[in-house]
Design a protein that fits this description.
Number of strands of chain B: 10
Distance between the termini of chain A: 42 Å
Oligomer: heterodimer
CATH architecture of chain B: 3-Layer(aba) Sandwich
CATH architecture of chain A: Orthogonal Bundle
Order of helices and strands of chain B: EEEHEEHEHHHHEHEHEEHH
Largest sheet of chain B: 6 strands, mixed
CATH topology of chain A: ABC transporter involved in vitamin B12 uptake, BtuC
Strand order of the largest sheet of chain B: 6-7-8-3-9-10
Number of domains of chain B: 1
Radius of gyration of chain A: 19 Å
Structural class of chain A: mainly alpha
Strand content of chain B: 25-35%
CATH superfamily of chain B: P-loop containing nucleotide triphosphate hydrolases
Order of helices and strands of chain A: HHHHEEHHHHHHH
Strand content of chain A: under 5%
Number of helices of chain B: 10
Helix content of chain B: 25-40%
Distance between the termini of chain B: 33 Å
Shape of chain B: globular
Largest sheet of chain A: 2 strands, antiparallel
Shape of chain A: globular
Strand order of the largest sheet of chain A: 1-2
Structural class of chain B: alpha/beta
Number of helices of chain A: 11
Number of domains of chain A: 1
């Protein structure tokens, strides 16, 4: 029973990280109908930047803040400079550009920071809470992770539902031509969507880095898990992304705990394929079609 | 000077000339209807005026000011609103969100919204519902109401009666007629249903293969039997 509780707690905190990656993917999908396969590379770069800032300045929170700002800027630049050219073309064009960007970013990171994974400090203690004399598999840092992801999801929901800029973003995403005719600066909304997505992505990178270490390829599995979580939630729904992330976190935690850690990636891919075959719209989506 | 003046407007889709040297004018407080069969270039004409398609030649003036080549996002800021074919209601947003969108660029809020609800009472009842749940007539009201949120001087309407029951279609036509008269709006109305369009329009322009084949007072066009048989189908 203790083991089950431990695995559940662990599933929730890792699931929160998958949810954050899924949120980033959902945001770009909502903004421009592009699945950003470069997201893993983008959050890897910002986490490396955080790592450098932390080791030179000695301040975790300075590195944290710099990474978020870099994420915001990187997202906007990628949309403006690269994706703008392929947004209106065939969906596969955007996929290829994103994959190319991923490879480029990984190569650049290797050249700048080296290919040996380095450790990354957590925001808070990773020593599990003491419950009745035993340490459970849930630490103050996990509380932080879960709260941050809940906060981000709530903040995004408030932005989309409660503000005029959110209304413009949704209009631009659903019907760009109509939005333009109503005076919405659709291009800016796309840039903003990508910037926000990359901000959330860089946050996910910071949250997961203590567990996976920082290296050019260290975040690849996280992107697969995040993508699975996003598909599980329907790709279109921020709420779906969070629920999908936590659900995936739990399942993978049980698989890892009861069957063995080596099966985790395989299990994620099985879930991904199963969802795509049985319910391609995801658990929360009402849309019928899917371009990618 | 007419409020909206179109001069020798030409639009090409590759080798196909969709709009071929169209010249027409719409005065404030009046309705000009553009008639013609499918593929006559009616929708292309409207899309070119509002900047959705690039013109190969010609001029479009709004109150004497050249607006051809102005980006789509800015056309509405110059005073021209376009209600697209198929209504262009954003189904995933609520009725009120759709309406608010129309006035966001000018910071239009509660007051204008109230006026639109006065004009279209059924929309007020459905303000919180997704636009996807509205009937055809309500969607048309929403689409026109949303365009009016911008307080335009020129309104382009593309087939507002398409797919509506005859009674609903007649109501919409009455409303357009009232709008033009009361708010000094210049309305350019594209219609497949020539009879009902001519019943409210002051002037009619008949297009065939992108060219103007007739341009006259609405009554004169209605009375011209040869023209009616050849192009208007009634």
């Amino acid at each position: 029973m203790t083991r089950f509780i431990d695995l559940t707690l662990n599933g929730i905190s890792t699931g929160a990280v998958y949810a954050a990656v899924a949120l980033a993917l959902v945001l770009t999908w909502r903004a421009t109908r592009i699945v950003n396969f470069a997201q893993g590379g983008m959050l890897m770069i910002t986490t490396f930047i955080a790592s450098s800032v932390i080791s030179t300045s000695g301040s975790y929170w300075l590195g944290f803040a710099v990474a978020l700002v870099c994420g915001l800027v990187l997202g906007a630049v990628v949309e403006r400079a690269l994706m703008r050219r392929v947004e209106s073309g065939a969906p596969l064009n955007a996929v290829i550009v994103a994959l190319g960007l991923l490879i480029l970013l990984q190569a650049l990171a290797g050249m700048i920071w080296g290919n040996t994974p380095r450790s990354f400090p957590p925001a808070f203690s990773i020593r599990g809470y003491d419950v009745g004399g035993t340490h459970v598999l849930f630490a103050p840092n996990d509380t932080f992770t879960v709260l941050v992801v809940i906060g981000v999801a709530a903040g995004l929901a408030a932005l989309f539902r409660g503000t005029t800029i959110g209304l413009k973003m949704r209009a631009a995403a659903f019907q760009p031509e109509v939005a333009r005719m109503l005076g919405v600066r659709v291009g800016r909304m796309f840039t903003l969507g990508w910037a926000l997505a990359a901000l959330v992505g860089s946050l996910a990178g910071l949250l997961v880095a203590p567990a996976v270490f920082v290296g050019p390829n260290q975040f690849d599995p996280i992107l697969i898990f995040g993508f699975t979580a996003a598909v599980l939630g329907g790709l279109d729904s921020p709420v779906g992304a969070v629920v999908g992330g936590v659900a995936l976190g739990l399942v993978l935690s049980y698989v890892s705990g009861y069957e063995g850690a080596s099966l985790v990636t395989l299990a994620a891919l099985v879930i991904l394929i199963a969802v795509l075959m049985i319910r391609p719209g995801g658990l929360f989506s009402s849309t019928q079609e899917r371009r990618v | 000077m007419a409020r909206l003046e179109i001069e020798k407007l030409t639009t090409d889709y590759g080798p196909v000339r969709a709009v071929d040297g169209v010249t027409l004018a719409v005065d404030e407080g009046s309705i000009t209807t553009v008639l013609g069969a499918n593929g006559a270039g009616k929708t292309s004409l409207l899309r070119t005026i509002s900047g959705l398609e690039r013109a190969s030649d010609g001029r479009v003036r709004l109150d004497g000011e050249d607006i051809l080549g102005v980006p789509v996002e800015d056309i509405v800021r110059r005073g021209l609103a376009h209600v697209p074919e198929g209504r262009g209601v954003i189904a995933e947003l609520s009725t009120e969100e759709n309406l608010r969108l129309g006035g966001l660029w000018r910071g239009a809020e509660a007051a204008t919204l109230g006026e639109i609800y006065e004009l279209f009472p059924p929309l007020r009842e459905r303000r919180g519902q997704l636009a996807a749940s509205l009937s055809g007539g309500e969607r048309q009201m929403l689409s026109i109401g949303r365009a009016l949120m911008a307080r335009p001087r020129v309104l382009l309407l593309d087939e507002p009666s398409l797919g509506l029951a005859p009674l609903v279609s007649a109501q919409i036509m009455q409303l357009i007629s009232k709008l033009a008269a009361e708010s000094e709006l210049a309305v350019l109305l594209v219609e497949q249903n020539a009879r009902s369009a001519l019943s409210i329009a002051h002037r009619g322009v008949v297009l065939n293969l992108g060219r103007v084949v007739a341009d006259d007072a609405a009554q004169t066009l209605s009375a011209d039997e040869g023209l009616r048989k050849a192009y208007l189908g009634f």
